[in-house]
Amino acid sequence: MDRGTLPLAVALLLASCSLSPTSLAETVHCDLQPVGPERGEVTYTTSQVSKGCVAQAPNAILEVHVLFLEFPTGPSQLELTLQASKQNGTWPREVLLVLSVNSSVFLHLQALGIPLHLAYNSSLVTFQEPPGVNTTELPSFPKTQILEWAAERGPITSAAELNDPQSILLRLGQAQGSLSFCMLEASQDMGRTLEWRPRTPALVRGCHLEGVAGHKEAHILRVLPGHSAGPRTVTVKVELSCAPGDLDAVLILQGPPYVSWLIDANHNMQIWTTGEYSFKIFPEKNIRGFKLPDTPQGLLGEARMLNASIVASFVELPLASIVSLHASSCGGRLQTSPAPIQTTPPKDTCSPELLMSLIQTKCADDAMTLVLKKELVAHLKCTITGLTFWDPSCEAEDRGDKFVLRSAYSSCGMQVSASMISNEAVVNILSSSSPQRKKVHCLNMDSLSFQLGLYLSPHFLQASNTIEPGQQSFVQVRVSPSVSEFLLQLDSCHLDLGPEGGTVELIQGRAAKGNCVSLLSPSPEGDPRFSFLLHFYTVPIPKTGTLSCTVALRPKTGSQDQEVHRTVFMRLNIISPDLSGCTSKGLVLPAVLGITFGAFLIGALLTAALWYIYSHTRETEQPPAGSTGVNSPWEPVLHSTQNGACSPRLPFPPPSQRPAASAATGLEHLGVPPPHRTFNPVGLGYGCPGDRPLATLL
């Protein structure tokens, strides 16, 4: 061969070698089929939602989030976690979470230390344990009206639609959206604000690569591009149930260019990725990956090029933050057929704790009634053999779709105290050798007394029945005797000032109504407290008013059916400022307004009088002909009399020559319209923004 042609031949040979994997990838034969769950399962957490939005509302008092959750028919379980970090040593602003569901849900809520108000449908949502937060009944509205209902309470920070979630993580104060108004849009990325895990695992497929010998297996994960194109790290957890040394495998990770990978594997594997990757044990060491095909056929070709004979798992996912792969192939033969039929009955999955949380307690007509719905019991796969009170002779009745256990307060082992009737629900389950027990309570409302107190200082020492405009008032609600098993909460409060002042809303839906109302920390005994600042912008000022509050007693443990509502009120006297507008604590706003208006009126009248004198003096007094002097209009002018004497005359015309007074004399004569009020009469506090309607809190 000619020496000159040798380099060309070598170059062509290298080029053909480099192109061979691509050719193999395009012609590979591998029929992907679903893999049974016992061979491989992939779960993931993502921030991608079918519809959603994130907006910024930095100056809002209330942070509002809305979740629309779609579940399949039948009860479902959901874990909902809210996270917030302290800012400057304090917890963030109050949060309203609106939860809209289409079917029954067992909710496990975690919101430790967060001032949360939860709006939900109590007929569909059942708490696995008492939430310990303020709750509000959500009206039965369509989605658009629910968004409007939520927006009336504060600007919406985030909203999302999720299909059959198993768990949701909502991070508060993390909204990075560029929008100032939240409107649902399709295929959105919620970023760090919301992440969720679908209940249904991802579809896992597998196949045999034709023409490749050996037992090397490939696990291929393909992450599809998302709505957001920002840098993203995907944590990949790989757990293979094989003994060390029994596995020869390769992990292929392909995703958009902005995705990097953090790998946490329990086996040594060959790694083949796009972008950059690192290992959990050495997270700071980034390794550059490769440029891989972005099609299924291309990725199968990569697996064949790496001498894999089996694709043990092939998964395509939306843009995710965490992906978990569990597989047990260990290089053995691939099983894509359905799992074999079990010859032994499945293990009972009944959860006794969750079952006991479903018992509803109702108290009425001096009797306690326990209700347990059979539909919920069947969903938990529980078999109940008995439901009784502490006295086993008091057994529940089977009423078709539910078990009902009822007893008067005087029987079945009831324990009666000054404020409460207590007993114990005992449930026998087929899968448990010992019965399950739960404390149940009823309140003796006849023995409870609710008091509403007004105080003049935040120390709540000196009670009063008088409020003074412009001074802060402090309110506390108490129940006696104290009931440690129940939590006392403020539902709503308003101040009725009669026909002169209207109604001023202070608290609505367990949330402060306006900037000048503050919900304070409860007393050491748990009594709710709040403060408000009231002011009047007109007269006459009402002399009395009625402060009314609706409170709720909610059990700390047990169902929400035991929640009791009561309304308490007290009559208040209102101190009116004296004529000078002064009080012992200084000038109030009406006095300041009166002084200002009076000073303006006096100044305007003086200006009008001086202008009148000046203009009429100039018209009547002109200097005589030949005179070289100029008399000031304010200097006396000499005039001759019949007897030849001279007498001074002031430059005012006689009364007969003066112009007649008219209605335009005064301020209107100067082109200044008469003053009139442009503000509304009642409001809360100084400097509260917004309009001030008569009966509305700012």
TrEMBL record:
Its main location: membrane. It is found in: Cell membrane. The chain crosses the membrane at residues 587-614. Keywords: Cell membrane, Disulfide bond, Glycoprotein, Membrane, Signal, Transmembrane, Transmembrane helix. Residues 1-25 form the signal peptide. It is a single-pass type I membrane protein. It comes from the Eukaryota. Residues 45-197 form the TGFBR3/Endoglin-like N-terminal domain. It holds the Pfam family TGFBR3_N. PANTHER family: ENDOGLIN, ENDOGLIN/TGF-BETA RECEPTOR TYPE III. This is Endoglin. The gene is ENG.
